[in-house]
């Protein structure tokens, strides 16, 4: 089995403690630093991941568990088997290096999201990675490593607005699907912004959603599995942005903000895809930009040069 540190037995200071509560009992094991994630990703064997193959009530004090408690909790008193179950399911604290790595990856994901799915209110073009990075730094925005990107990005856009004014680059659609396909709404929320939603008496959901061009293909692809294509998606022509989501968002009541079907046009998925590609590739020439915005930009540049 895995052995403790030579000489003085196991040491909890250089290890990761993995904890698991089963019923009223609390169990802990000692894993090597950084080994939990590696083991769970299949990059490390069980015995290589463990500092020692023993289960404790308290790993700091090395208070060993009784065989009867292990059997009651895990169905076996075999230490290695119990360690494996705790290593797979237990909670653990990340090392500083792991925390930093996770935060860096999340920051990168946030920047990618803003570059891909947002555009400048002034230039109507996507910001560069450097612009977004600088805005996040200047505005001292705290990115949360554990919170999904789509749940924190709106807040980040709001916080950096003094430095970089962005708006989501999206097209509005109405989508309908049967409530029996349970995972549809969570899939939509991963790729699009739900602006209003209602549910009919016969369990049919209707939602107004804003889909960024870069997310359209992924959304359609992901919806195929749970629905087998059994849903509707309609383009809303000249959609007006909603002031606020309708009451349907929380209680599935009829949303007062719902579009009444005017200006809606059925669009095939292929046509939508082609139009999206055209939209995504199109760059707005300078003469189409708001002249006031351009004047402000020129003034800002002049001020910067004068500093």
From TrEMBL:
Gene3D superfamilies the UniProt entry points to: Ribosome maturation protein SBDS, N-terminal domain
All residue ranges annotated as the Ribosome maturation protein SDO1/SBDS N-terminal domain in the record: 16-99
Pfam families named in the record: SBDS_N
Matches recorded under InterPro entries: Ribosome_mat_SBDS_N_sf (IPR036786), Sdo1/SBDS-like (IPR039100), Sdo1/SBDS_central_sf (IPR037188), SDO1/SBDS_N (IPR019783)
Location of region: Disordered: 238-307
Biased amino acid composition, Basic residues: 259-276
Protein name: Ribosome maturation protein SDO1/SBDS N-terminal domain-containing protein
The species this protein was found in: Lotharella globosa
High-level lineage: Eukaryota, Sar, Rhizaria, Cercozoa, Chlorarachniophyceae
């Amino acid at each position: 089995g895995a052995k403790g540190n030579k000489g003085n037995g196991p040491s909890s200071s250089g290890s990761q403690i993995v904890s698991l509560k089963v019923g009223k009992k609390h169990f802990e094991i000692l894993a090597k630093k950084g080994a939990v994630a590696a083991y769970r990703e299949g990059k490390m064997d069980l015995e290589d991941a463990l500092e020692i193959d023993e289960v404790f009530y308290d790993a700091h004090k090395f208070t060993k568990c009784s065989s009867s408690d292990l059997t009651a909790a895990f169905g076996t008193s075999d230490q290695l088997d119990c360690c494996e179950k705790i290593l797979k399911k237990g909670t653990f604290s990340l090392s500083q290096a792991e925390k930093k790595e996770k935060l860096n990856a999340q920051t990168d994901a946030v920047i990618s999201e803003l570059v891909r799915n947002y555009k400048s209110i002034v230039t109507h073009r996507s910001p560069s990675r450097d612009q977004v990075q600088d805005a996040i730094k200047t505005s001292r925005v705290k990115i949360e490593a554990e919170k999904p990107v789509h749940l924190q990005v709106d807040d980040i856009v709001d916080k950096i607005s003094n430095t970089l004014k962005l708006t989501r680059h999206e097209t509005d659609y109405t989508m309908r699907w049967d409530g029996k396909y349970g995972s549809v709404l969570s899939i939509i929320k991963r790729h699009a912004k739900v602006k209003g939603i209602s549910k009919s008496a016969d369990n049919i959901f209707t939602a107004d959603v804003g889909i960024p061009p870069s997310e359209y293909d992924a959304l359609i692809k992901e919806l195929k599995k749970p629905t087998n294509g059994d849903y509707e998606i309609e383009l809303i022509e000249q959609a007006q942005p909603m002031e606020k989501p309708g009451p349907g968002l929380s209680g599935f009541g009829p949303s007062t903000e719902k579009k009444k079907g005017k200006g809606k046009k059925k669009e095939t998925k292929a046509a939508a895809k082609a139009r999206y590609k055209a939209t995504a590739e199109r760059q707005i020439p300078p003469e189409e930009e708001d002249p006031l915005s351009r004047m402000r930009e020129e003034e800002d540049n002049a001020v910067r040069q004068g500093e």
